[in-house]
Amino acid sequence: QEALEKYFGEIIIPTEKVAETRGGKRRVSERKLYPGYIMIKMILNDESWYLIRETGGVGDFTGAAGKPIPMKDEEIQRMLGLETAKEEIVQPKVKIDFSPGDRVKIKEGSFESFEGTVDTVDEVSGRVNVLVEIFGRSTPVELGYWQVEAV
């Protein structure tokens, strides 16, 4: 197997940082962008293909009829851009446990104790748009994810 090392380059598992709030505490964790997949830079020949196929836990290659399809340069650059971003100080995405259509109650602010329906969720900014009925009309209210709770 050591003789096959020359066929393999980088092995990457793309991840992103995600901020979660549990028990009132904020914590940052890493989440896989493509769960169940790894990206391997390799020279594909019979020996390297066989080694990967016979590795425990490997289901198959992404592609047609089990034959891998090389990624385009743009796809690789986009993926590697996500990897190199980890080296910089990056504002993590916020994991928001609400989806459009969920019923929520507003915990603080001008609309405290109002109930509404989640319209949109923005994990990047950590904002939730909630439709609240005021004077018989559905009115959109933009709130921080920490300002609402599930009903």
Ordered list of secondary-structure elements with their pairings:
Elements: E1 8-12, E2 15-22, E3 25-32, E4 39-42, H1 46-53, E5 63-64, E6 67-68, H2 73-84, E7 93-94, E8 103-106, E9 115-122, E10 127-134, E11 137-144, E12 148-150
Describe the structure.
With 151 residues, the chain is mainly β. The protein has helices at residues 46-53, 73-84; strands at residues 8-12, 15-22, 25-32, 39-42, 63-64, 67-68, 93-94, 103-106, 115-122, 127-134, 137-144, 148-150. The strands form four sheets. Strands 11-10-9-8-12 form a five-stranded antiparallel β-sheet, with no helix packed on it.
Short description:
This protein is mainly beta and 151 residues long. Helix content is 13%, strand content 41%.
Outline: elongated
CATH topology of the largest domain: Alpha-Beta Plaits
Binned strand content: 35-45%
* The number of domains: 2
The residue ranges in which pLDDT falls below 50 over 5 or more consecutive positions are 85-89
Major sheet: arrangement of strands = 11-10-9-8-12
Name of the top-level CATH class of the largest domain: Alpha Beta
Assign the structural class, choosing from mainly alpha, mainly beta, alpha/beta, alpha+beta, or little secondary structure: mainly beta
What characteristics describe this protein?
single chain; 151 residues; mainly beta; Alpha-Beta Plaits; SH3 type barrels; 2 domains; five-stranded antiparallel β-sheet; 12 strands
